[in-house]
Structures are given as C-alpha cells and as structure tokens.
Specification:
The protein has 34 helices and no strands. The protein has 681 residues and is mostly helical. It has a domain of 68 residues: Tetratricopeptide repeat domain (Serine Threonine Protein Phosphatase 5, Tetratricopeptide repeat, Alpha Horseshoe), CATH 1.25.40. Helix 6 packs across helix 17. The radius of gyration is 30 Å and the shape is globular.
Amino acid sequence: MKKWLPLSLIIAFGVLCYSNIFNNEFLFDDPDIILNNKAIRDIFNLKSVLLTNYWHSIANAGLYRPLVFFTYALDYHFWGKEPAGYHISNLIFHLITCWILYSVFARFLKSRRIAFAGALLFAAHPVHTEAVTGIVGRAEVLMALFFLLGWLLFLKSESTIIDSPSGKINIFKRNLMLSAGCYFLALCSKENAVVLPVILISLLLRWDHNKSFYQRIENILRVGFLYFVPLCIYLAVRWSVIGSFSPQGTEQFFHNVSSSSVFFTMMRVFLMYGKLLLVPTNLLCSYRLTALSSSLFEWRVLFSLVGVIIWFCAALRYFKSGCKGQFGLFFILVSLLPVSNIIRIGDIMAERFLYLPSVGFVLFAAEMWCKTVCGRSLEKNNKFYLMNALLLLCALAFCLGTIKRNAEWRTGIIFWKTTLRDIPDSNSGYFNLAVCYREKGAPEMAIKVLKRSLEIHPNHIPTRIFLAEMYYSAGQYENAIRENTVVLDRGEHQSVVYKNLALNYIKLQDYEKAREYCMRGIEQASDAQNALYHTLVRIYLNTGDMNNALFFALKAVEYDQSDVMGYILSGDIYKRFENYEKAEYYLKKALALDENSHQALDYLAAVYYRKHDFDQAIKVWNQAIKLYPDDEHIWYYIGLTYELKGNLPAAKDAWRNITRNHAYVERVKERLHRLTENNGR
C-alpha cells in the first residue's frame, strides 16, 4: 500500500487541478485541428489519419504528428464533436505522464520522497494549462509521455551498462530497444522529442566516468546509433508525407528576420520561460506581441544574456558534481532547444512549450527542497514539518492557479476577452474574439470587435476582409462592398476580395456587376482564382444560364486540375442536365482528390438515386453519414431510398435520426402519415 500511496495522491491531486475543464468548449486551434479536420473522422481509414500533415489544410505548415492524429480519430469515433471526451483523454494522458515522471524520478534520484514532491508540483503547475486544458496541447503531453517512458526504460538499463564486463553497451537489450521505440513514438507526437538522445547520453557520461576515454566514446556512438535509427525512419516518413523537415516560408515566426535579432530576442525569451516556471502568473495565450531585439546593448538583452550564462554554467556543473538538481537545469535548457528558433518555427514562445522543460524545473525544485533544506534524513524536526508545509502550500497555490486558468479557457469568448484584458492592444486577440462571435451566430458583435481591431491596426488587410464578410453575414451588403473596395484601393488584389464583392452584388441581384468583379478578379488577382470561377457558376445558375454555368465549372477544373469544388460543380450541373455518366465521372474525380468531401458524396449518391440504383445510392450515403453523422438531409434521403426499395423498417430507422431540422421532421411525418393511409386502404 505504501508503494501505491504516493501515486494515488499524485493522481488524485492532478484530477482535482483539472476537475473544472469538462464543460470547456473547443477553442483556440481546436476547431481547425479537430472539428474541421476530415482526416480524423474515420478511425478505420488509417491512410488518412497517418498520412495527413498536422495543419491538414495548409500544405507547407511543416508539422507531422501522426500519433496525435490517431488519438484525435479515436476520440472522434467515440465522442464525435462533444469536447468533454477530448478533455477526459487529455487529462488521462497528463495523469499517465505524472505517473511515469514519478517512476523516473524515483529511479533517477533514488528517493521516493523527492520523486513524490517533483511529480506533485508537475501535476499542478499552472503553466501546463495550455497543454492539458487546451485540447490541441495534447501533442505536448503525448510527446512528454513517451519521452519520459524512453528515459525510464534507459534508466532501467543503468546497472547493466555500468557493470558490463566488456565495458561496452549492448544496445540490443530489451529495455534499450523499447526505449528507442518510445523515442520514435515521441517524435510521432511532436518534433521537440528530438533531444531525448542528448539527455540520455549526458546520463551515460556520468555512468561511464570510470571507464577509459575510448570506451566512453564507443558507448556514446553505440547509444547514438540506437536512437539515430528511429530518428531517420521518422524523418523519412515525415518527408514522404509533408515534403519538409520544418515550417516553410511565412509559417516561420521569424521569417525574414536576421539571425542576430533572433538570437537577442530568444535570450530574453529564455529568461521569460524561467520566470514562468518559477512564478507562473500573468499567463497568456499568445506572446506574439513580444518586441524583437536587434542589439546586444539593449539592457533587457544584456540582463537576459547574463542570466542565461549563469543558468548554463550552473547546468554544466552537473557533469563535474553529479548533482541531480543541476541536471534539472541542464534538462530545461536542452528541452528548450527545439523551440529556440535555431531552426525557425511558427511561434516566438508559448506556455505549452514548457510542458516538457518543466520536468527539469520540478526536478531541480524537488532536489533543492530535499537536499538543501530538509536534508536526506527522515528526522521529524521543526524544519522538516515547516518545509513540508511550504511544499504543500506551493502545490496548493499551483493547484488554485491551474483551476483559475482553466476557467479562463471555458469558452472562446471568455478566453479572448481575458487575453485582451492582459494584452489590450492585441489585434489578433480582437480578430479571434470576432471569430468566436461569428461561430456563436452573433455577426453584429463580431463587427463591433473588428472595428476596434482596425482602430489599433487600420492597415491590417485580413481584419478588413473579415469585417466585410461579417457585414455580408449581417445583411449589410453596402457596408461590405465599401470595406472590400477599400482593400482593392490599397492595392491588395486578392481573389477572395473580388469574390466577396461579387457575392454582395448577387445578394443585391445586380448580376452584371457581380460578373464584372469576377472577370476583373480573373484578370488581376495575385493568387489562385478557382473561387472566382465557382462564383461565376453561381451567378449563371441564379440567372438560369446552365450552359455558361457548365462552361465556367469546367474552366475551374481546366485552371486547376486539383480543384475539388470545380469537379463537384461540374458533376452537379451534368446531373441537372441528366447526363448521369459525366456527372458520375466528375464527382468520382472529386472524391479521388478528397475522399471525405461531403458534397461530392452527397451529389454522387443523388446521381445513383436518380438512376434508380438504390443500393449504390445507400452505400455512398452511408459512407457520407459515417463522416457527417449529424447531417439530417442525408438521413432523410437514406430513409427515402429504403422506402422506395420497400424496406420500411430500415427507412424508419434512418428517419429516427432526424430530430432538429424542422423541415425534414415535417417531411418524415408527412411520408409516414401517407404510408399509414395507403396501408389502411
């Protein structure tokens, strides 16, 4: 019982810290990564789950995390779009990580008392809220879980390595092979795990300090090779899937920033990370407004540089003294290297980046607490009780801070309002708050927020385009036209602006003006013009000119042979022409490009329905309903097709899923009433 008591207390404390997250919504990056991600909607489609880049809709995002995607697919399979299940999974992964961390510390420090103190602080640290409470922070948690498991398995080989008769490490021992496997899984969770071999080789240097120089070098090479193999496999798979090893172009935060400026700025960031680990207050969701530094002689840069040098020197003393607390300082520095922008990444800093480095912090804190203050004896003196009370107070303070921060992640609106309270001049904060208002169906509030955003940054084109879209949603078409025209007057000839202008004129039924802007966009837009061809199709469908509608749908496909919507529109128009052979051809082309396309599946099933190939229609609609289980339109037509086949029980089973869409509810009632009357006759 004594063995399991510390683990039970750590897990119970972790549950307490995150007990208020289960009613939290999807927010921040959650909707894009999870709700809008077609790749995770079918757990049995492993090809889609494992061969999609993390930012599935952005080709050059430079992120590949298949294991995280797999867990999202599992959650989607069981929970659908209910966020509570995803939060449960995140908390479970966090608690498992705490458990493994306790085991690592107990073996590494040879003290369950210190291991308990470190794991308790880790379980409650407020800086972890972005990683645990934020659903997409799961990448950090899973990466740390397998990172620590790989470390634990390596520690279990310590006696074998030290007592090896030949002095050489046998890398084919079970624990070492399993450790290398965990390294691969950690890399498949997040790229930051790349530094695990550095941590393990640093431990090896201490274990081998009594061996000859050549034996030490040989062992380092053996261990390096052991972990180099899974790294190469991961990099090869990553390149084959996303075609890059890192974020590309404008996806980098420091894109087009000089290396010296990156170095000076990141010195300050490292010290800010140290502050967040030591005193986790004033937590933010975004640090992108952090001012860049361009000179060594800025006082903040000099102060930070001195601080980091002292930190670095203290960390290096581990290799001489063997002090485990100093190894914690070394661990923080090494685990921060992947996010130090040596290789440019998508952000300057983030609290979620501290999930793994905080392992080093709690190791340092727990070791210093025990060694420096309490001593290693178990003598129950006044100092012992006092310092245990201080540890408990610190853990409770962390717990309260985490609970408070969790509440700020309750909804997108609360989250971004809290952010704007702390960063009142954040243009991106207002932008994201407007996104939340749009998702809640409140375009008027979104307009108000975006106007405030433009007061701060009047030249921010994406905000002005978004404002124009919100005017459109609110039915304020003249205001939308005005904002889009301002964008054009400032020389931003983006196809989305021409498209939005055309859509507003369509609403005003000025089809000639709408067509004019589409044609201007095709001539002048600086980016892809597919959407303009799509809008022209809509214009001609509205005016009943089917031939021109088909012409521009085919033009879209000719312009871009990977244009899924172009194929869908072509197939739909051929369906209207009752040319089912060509309709089927174009819709299948769309599905070859995007096998999860809602419209392509629906339209293809409709083609089979019209051809009276009811079995094939049901097959395709069932494929669609697996991906979109809440689509009551599809449920209605599945039921209707079963009814036409004479299978009324199956039709009723399908129609039972229709509960919210009033129009379809009434249609079902009408059909069932008519069927009852016919059976009565």
